[in-house]
Specification:
By secondary structure, the chain is of the alpha/beta class. It has 2 domains: about 55 residues, Winged helix-like DNA-binding domain superfamily/Winged helix DNA-binding domain (Arc Repressor Mutant, subunit A), CATH 1.10.10; about 180 residues, Rossmann fold, CATH 3.40.50.1360. It is about 40% helix and about 20% strand. The strands form 4 sheets. The chain has a 7-stranded parallel sheet, with helices on both faces. Helix 1 packs across helix 3, helix 5 crosses helix 6 and helix 8 packs parallel to helix 9. The N and C termini lie far apart (about 40 Å).
């Protein structure tokens, strides 16, 4: 197949789904993954898409966030290991808030695997789907609002208002970026506001982020790092974060390789 034919097919897939994954394109186009990546690089240089880990996507107006399908394919084993650490922080009969991140989806999967007696509050349709056909001990509370297909979540002022009616034992959130100076940040204002409210509506506030999140700032700031009690991550903290955590006596937990 000629390069122009491959790239036209990639463009068609992007317009249908909003994203593409390298392994799926490799099978569909009957070519190597390296060839697919080379095509995606050329298409990005032409302004037709944005490449990311394992694929590419079309940018929506005012939203730089990755589609959930791409986020699920990135560092899945790292998320599983961090989720195993997170579950050890949950006690029987806790009320727990989980955001719409794929990291929190991994935590929900870990809760299901060990069959904890907990109440889960979430704005994630992906997490709700996880429990729809199981006989688990989880009492699930889904928080509604305007549905965002890109993140498979509900996020608008109604979502935030609903969260104000609860006070959880623990809130687990992730976010695209964080810095010592700017704090926690997100790519979408509605998701940022939901995460902010989850932190405000919980006794213990737990941030679960892999090592790639300690790099710069996204566009919407929603809370300061001082409002986090625990950080769960997969690699030693950068020096400035380590110094900050030590000064604040912030608990830092690491997943095992």
């Amino acid at each position: 197949m000629l390069k122009i034919e491959r790239q036209n097919l990639v463009d068609q897939e992007l317009r249908k789904a909003g994203y593409v994954l390298v392994p799926e394109l490799s099978r569909m186009l009957n070519c190597s993954e390296e060839t697919v990546r080379r095509d995606l690089r050329e298409m990005e240089m032409a302004g037709k898409l944005v490449r990311t880990h394992g694929g590419a996507y079309l940018v929506e107006k005012y939203d730089k966030g990755y589609p959930i399908e791409l986020r699920k394919s990135y560092l899945p084993h790292t998320k599983e290991r961090m989720a195993a650490v997170a579950v050890r922080e949950i006690q029987e009969n806790d009320m727990v808030m989980l955001d719409s991140s794929t990291t929190c989806l991994a935590i929900a999967e870990a809760i299901l695997a060990v069959d904890l007696n907990v109440t889960l509050i979430t704005n994630s349709l992906a997490i709700c789907d996880l429990f729809k056909e199981t006989n688990s001990n989880v009492n699930l509370i889904g928080i509604g609002g305007v549905f965002r297909r890109r993140t498979s979540s509900f996020a608008d002022p109604n979502t935030v208002e609903a969260l104000r009616h609860y006070y959880a034992d623990k809130a687990f959130i992730s976010c695209p970026k964080l810095s010592v100076e700017q704090g926690l940040s997100d790519n979408h204002i509605s998701e940022a506001t939901v995460r902010q409210q989850m932190l405000r509506s919980a006794e213990k506030k737990i941030l679960v982020v892999d090592h790639t999140k300690f790099e710069g700032t996204a566009n919407h700031l929603f809370d300061g790092l001082e409002n986090v009690n625990v950080i769960i991550t997969d690699q030693p903290l950068p020096e400035d974060f380590a110094a900050y955590a030590a000064k604040r006596k912030m608990q830092v937990l690491y997943s095992q390789d």
